[in-house]
Write a structure and sequence with these properties.
248 residues; alpha/beta; Collagenase (Catalytic Domain); 2 domains; two-stranded parallel sheet; 6 helices; 18% strand; globular; MetalloPept_cat_dom_sf; zinc ion binding; metallopeptidase activity; Peptidase_Metallo
Length: 248
């Protein structure tokens, strides 16, 4: 499944959360496809030099797609028979971290298409998730709403080293962040990232229009400066919802 519409922005609602909740504007449903990115340092240059090392769970959310505070979301697994128990249990463990930081809970209820959140482990399907309450739309009837890819670190081998486990944890937290309604942190207007687009396209293998369109949706396109659409904190490069841009 691929993203079907461009994302769009961020506004600081810490002082007026109810105003924003009552003025939300819904964006079209979409699945956000996520990858860890390794690119040369010259590809981007940010003017925002602030780093908050305690902010990994800071985020910007698509307001119309957030859940009612205190909600418990049912979660099921598709194709679990082919997935090691250690992988399943680690997904549960890391997903629950969100509940320690926010008033939202997950209830893992079993296998098949029975959960509100339905997780597949399709090899080659990428790590991706529906955004917030989009999972309830007919677009996702009879389908998974999240994929965790065994070919992209969601496997038992990753759990056998501290480094691998850290990557596994990062991916699960990121995708469950989308479940809560979070958007990509680097796509809010406050990010102020200056991209060398040609080099980004090259780094991602953007040789076809379809691939370039996917890169545009997941990297370059920003949400509009409208807190009725997206609300959140200032841009934070350490957010779990930020793509990882590792210098080479």
């Amino acid at each position: 499944m691929q993203p079907s519409s461009p994302p769009h922005s961020d506004g600081d609602t810490r002082n007026q959360p109810m105003l924003i909740q009552n003025q939300h504007v819904a964006m079209p449903p979409k699945v956000i496809s996520c990858k860890q990115i390794v690119v040369p340092t010259t590809i981007f240059n940010t003017q925002d030099a602030s780093v908050n090392n305690d902010s990994s769970l800071k985020m910007a959310v698509e307001v119309a797609k957030t859940w009612k505070p205190g909600s418990t979301l049912s979660v099921s697994f598709i194709g679990r028979a082919n997935v090691p128990d250690a992988v399943i249990e680690s997904v549960k463990e890391f997903a629950h971290i969100w509940s320690q930081h926010g008033n939202i809970f997950f209830n893992f209820i079993g296998d098949g298409l029975v959960g509100l959140i339905r997780i597949s482990f399709t090899p080659g399907g990428g790590n991706c998730s529906a955004v917030g309450t989009d999972c309830q739309l007919k677009d996702f009837n009879g389908q998974y709403t999240m994929n965790l890819d065994p070919e992209e670190d969601i496997n038992e081998r990753s759990l056998q080293s501290e480094e691998g486990k850290a990557v596994f944890r990062q991916i699960v937290l990121h995708e469950f962040g989308h479940v809560l309604g979070c958007v990509h942190e680097h796509q809010q207007p406050k990010a102020n990232i200056k991209w060398d687009k040609d080099r980004v396209y090259t780094a991602f293998g953007g040789h076809s229009k379809k691939k370039r369109d996917l890169i545009d949706v997941n990297i370059f396109e920003h949400y509009p400066q409208n807190p009725a659409i997206v609300a959140g904190t200032e841009h934070d490069k350490d957010s779990i919802m930020h793509y990882e841009f590792t210098p080479t």
